[in-house]
Write a structure and sequence with these properties.
Elements: H1 2-35, H2 40-63, H3 70-89
Helix pairs in contact: 1-2
Length: about 90
């Protein structure tokens, strides 16, 4: 039963951190694109990087409490987004 409660807690934390990352992406994109008149793709890229860093850091620290090798985990995230971000911009 304790494992089920822990999994539920992880799901709830993950959900709320993901929602907050989405808000950060929306707000930062809007500020860069609408207020500072930056063109679309740099605005999108900066907003995406900010939201990924926010989500990765908070989930790693508070949701999963991972003490594993951070540079390796960050490299995996970087490779993933290096492949899929250009595709989403296209």
């Amino acid at each position: 039963m304790e494992n089920k409660n822990e999994n539920t807690e992880h799901m709830v934390k993950f959900f709320f951190f993901s929602v907050s990352a989405g808000l950060i992406q929306i707000l930062s994109f809007t500020i860069l694109h609408e207020l500072f008149n930056l063109i679309y793709w740099p605005s999108y890229l900066v907003a995406l990087i900010l939201s990924v860093l926010w989500n990765f850091t908070l989930n790693r620290k508070f949701t999963f409490k991972s003490a594993a090798n951070v540079p390796i985990a960050m490299m995996k995230v970087t490779v993933f987004y290096a492949i899929f971000t250009p595709l989403s911009l296209w």
